[in-house]
């Protein structure tokens, strides 16, 4: 008997799957073009904020500088007030973000569904 062991046989399909896992995947949303630009962020629960995008990661955690939170009306939470609160530099947790929009070219329109 020989002391040599035969390596397990791998199919070409499993080799391809292993290679695919090793390849770096492109992110779905590329925010690099918005670095150092003002963006608008909306969160679950209704909070809204805008600030200068300083950085982000693959989970869409954002670092905003000069951030300003828009305050909702306490009597009617579906309405925003003109009040704002200065936050400064902040980290926005990616899983709680529902919308990211550049402020450049953004235009607010009247809601056609409100009666």
TrEMBL record:
Lineage top rank: taxon: Eukaryota
This protein's name: Sm-like protein lsm7
